[in-house]
Amino acid sequence: MGAVMGSDHQLALPVQLPDHARLDNFVPGGGEIGEAHRLLLAHLELISASAWAPERQYTYLFGSSGRGKTHLLCALCERCADQGRSSIYLSLNEFQSANDVSVLQGLERYDVIALDDIQAVCDQSIWCDALFALFNRVQDAGTGFMVLAADQSITRLPIALPDLRSRLQWASPYQLRPLPDTDKVTVLQQHAQARGLELTEGVGEFIVQRLSRDLHELMGALEQLDQASMARQRRLTLPFVKQVLVI
Q1: Strands 2-5 and 87-91, how do they pair?
Q2: CB within 8 A of 54, min separation 6: which ones?
Q3: CA nearest neighbour of 79 among 45, 116, 120, 35
Q4: How many domains are contained in the chain?
Q5: What range does the domain containing 119 cover?
Q6: What is the pLDDT of residues 5-20, one digit of tens each?
Q7: 84 in the same domain as 202
Q8: 121 secondary structure, DSSP code
Q9: Residue 43 binned pLDDT confidence (cut-offs 50, 70, 90)
Q10: What's the CATH code of the domain at 100?
């Protein structure tokens, strides 16, 4: 998956950025988790606003599936587009072949480079060499930002090239932590509202309690409900949700 956003850049890649991914609809949560997530949001806002500083040139997001890494990377690119700045989002899950490594060529010309799922390729020497070279080109340019994401911390990633691990350690690390169930209900309600659906708190709680706590799976369930609601012209009542999701 990939897309370029910017005032005068548009690259045809298989999938465009999701419309629902915005920095202002990311639910940070409460307590210490929420405070840490809000610091990350502020950091990404500064990047999108072109507030360049060496300590913000490289950023590393990590956490297991469903924590919001992809949402934030796509949202950052959307915000860059609003600011009239060029950016690119790539999920390296979609470019794992050695023949695909050329996708990294020329990325240094963008104001913001968002690379998702780097764990998919970092155990391959050819990809490590290419990522290391991209770091060096961005460093030489001295104006752009790289924001990378993976499912593990840098120290736990199976990186084939020690020099790449060294470069990644330049990045400011931010861990995405799991949200409590109450905040997951809020996420579902916000995304339902963006689709023109009304999801009550009670129905949202039922979905979260009866399905996986993984937000990717919850979003998949919401997509299924959206399609069924449009096809049958039904509201998201509890009986309808039970029927559609077979729960």
Answers
A1: antiparallel
A2: none
A3: 45
A4: 2
A5: 31-175
A6: 443 343 434 445 566 7
A7: no
A8: T
A9: very high
A10: 3.40.50.300
Q: Is the pLDDT of residue 60 over 90?
A: yes
Please check the confidence at residue 176 and state whether its pLDDT lies above 70.
yes
Rounded (5°) CA angle 96-174-221: 65
112/218 same-domain check: no
Looking at the structure, tell me whether residues 185 and 129 fall in a common domain: no
Does 62 share its domain with 83? yes
The pLDDT value given to residue 19: 61
Distance CA 168, CA 131 (A): 10
The span from the CA of 169 to the CA of 155, in Å, is 9
Better pLDDT: 244 or 54: 244
The verdict on residue 2 lying in a domain is no
Same domain for 158 and 45: yes
Q: What residues contact residue 47 under an 8 Å CB cut-off, 6+ apart?
A: 56, 59, 76, 112, 145, 147
Q: 44 pLDDT band (50/70/90 cuts)?
A: very high
What SS3 state is found at 170? coil
- pLDDT above 90 coverage of the chain, percent: 70
Residue 73 to residue 30: CA distance in whole angstroms:
21
**DSSP 8-state symbol, 156:** G
Residue 153 sits in the same domain as residue 190: no
Tokens of 157: 């990633």
Locate the DSSP E strands across 151-242: 172-175
* Domain assignment of residue 10, yes or no: no
**Predicted confidence band at 30 (pLDDT cuts at 50, 70, 90)?**
confident
**Quick check: 157 and 119 in contact, CB under 8 A?**
yes
**Residue 226 confidence class, pLDDT cut points 50, 70, 90:** very high
